[in-house]
UniProtKB/TrEMBL annotation:
PANTHER family: ADENINE PHOSPHORIBOSYLTRANSFERASE, URACIL PHOSPHORIBOSYLTRANSFERASE, CHLOROPLASTIC
GO molecular function: GTP binding; magnesium ion binding; uracil phosphoribosyltransferase activity
Top-level taxon of origin: Bacteria
Family (UniProt): Belongs to the UPRTase family.
Catalyses which reaction(s): UMP + diphosphate = 5-phospho-alpha-D-ribose 1-diphosphate + uracil
GO cellular component, one term: cytoplasm
Cofactor: Mg(2+)
One Pfam family matching this protein: UPRTase
Role, per record: Catalyzes the conversion of uracil and 5-phospho-alpha-D-ribose 1-diphosphate (PRPP) to UMP and diphosphate.
Binding locations of uracil: 195, 200-202
Name of the protein in question: Uracil phosphoribosyltransferase
Phylogenetic classification of the source organism: Bacteria, Bacillati, Actinomycetota, Actinomycetes, Micrococcales
Class of enzymatic activity (EC top level): transferase
Length: 210
């Protein structure tokens, strides 16, 4: 498993505004979108391409195009949905599947409550979107779900991670083709399962308290 923490002043600047408790939902949503586009650029560094020959107005030349089967983007509901637009802006030909995972607030264990994915993910490159890698439970369950359907390699994109959750996912997928691209690794996870300093509940901040 590989971990890549995007180290860029623009990302840190946007993250700082995102963390601020006084940042309202509309600004929060557009910042997630902007951050996501920057993280998507890092996360797609190894997207599979194949040679493609075209004719410019001047000459024939061979470049590349994204290979078939098309990559699959999987936002984890609810908060991962806020990252989708930023991702498909960079990868417009990707297909999009959905996975609804919630954590039990007492046990912190993940459960799958919705799923809309192709049955066969063989040879698919999958990009999972989940803003907060906290305990790692729901992200690990989502990645396992994709491998169980035949996915070959999985890249997860998270805005923030707690070291505890990152270690748990690393342990679960040691030796597997999994990459995690992160905006930052924070200090720790508190007793309520929140990332510290974090940004609070990403779903609530994106969509309000439901
Ligand atoms: N999920 C969130 O939205 N925030 C956290 O800090 C942890 C999990």
């Amino acid at each position: 498993m590989r971990v890549h923490v995007a180290d860029h002043p623009l990302i840190t600047h946007k993250l700082t505004v995102l963390r601020d408790k006084d940042t309202p939902s509309p600004v929060f949503r557009s910042l997630v979108d902007e951050l996501m586009t920057l993280l998507a650029y890092e996360a797609t560094r190894d997207v599979r391409v194949e040679p493609h020959t075209i004719q410019t107005p001047v000459a024939e030349t061979t470049g590349v195009r994204i290979s078939e089967p098309r990559p699959l983007v999987v936002p984890i509901l609810r908060a991962g949905l806020g990252m989708l637009e930023g991702m498909v802006k960079l990868l417009p030909t990707a297909e999009v599947g959905f996975l609804g995972m919630a954590r039990n607030e007492v046990t912190l264990e993940p459960t799958t409550y919705a799923e809309r994915l192709p049955d066969d993910l063989s040879a698919r490159q999958c990009f999972v979107l989940d803003p907060m890698l906290a305990t790692g439970g729901s992200l690990a369950a989502a990645i396992q779900f994709l491998f169980d359907r035949g996915a070959q390699d999985v890249t997860a994109i998270c805005i923030l991670a707690a070291p505890e959750g990152l270690a748990a996912v690393e342990k679960a997928f040691e030796g597997h083709d999994v990459t995690i691209v992160l905006g930052a690794v924070d200090d720790h996870l508190n007793e309520h399962g929140y990332i510290v300093p974090g940004l609070g509940d990403a779903g609530d901040r994106l969509y309000g308290l439901v």
